[in-house]
Amino acid sequence: MRQFAFVLCALGALSACAENPTEGALWGTGAGAVIGGGIGRAAAIGAPHLASTFTPVGAVAGAAAGYMIGGYFDPHPNRLWSAATIEAAESGKEVRWAARGLEGAVTPVGKDWTDGGGRWCRRLTQMAQRPGEAASVYSREVVACRLQEATWEVVAPAEDDPRN
What we know:
By secondary structure, the chain is α+β, with helices and mostly antiparallel strands. 45% of the residues lie in helices and 25% in strands. The chain contains four helices and five strands, in the order H-H-H-H-E-E-E-E-E.
């Protein structure tokens, strides 16, 4: 029981070190602690008196490794930003996203138009920031144009935008 309490305290300390843990990092920490604790316990099979030392050390090491590995399974903010841009261009509605301590939105601005090449285009405002930090806001205007193969090309800004 002492070992379990020690492992819980160590996991709490590790998670407190994380400023903004993601879902993948939290799951990775838990799984890593369980696996690491099991490996530590197995390492002490030949010397049972060392199990009380090896098990928590393995759990803490596993939790640290799991935290780092688990973070890689979360979607990267750039992918979410790109997906939100395409969805906002398609739908004509604001799309919000959040990942890894960042949040943002892509908002259509004005009416859509057809450019000189026959592509359907729409002006969008992309915004990203760290929650609660007004000074961290990044915003830019881009134009997304739909190509014939139903993919989108993002340009900043389009040369034949009727508002230029």
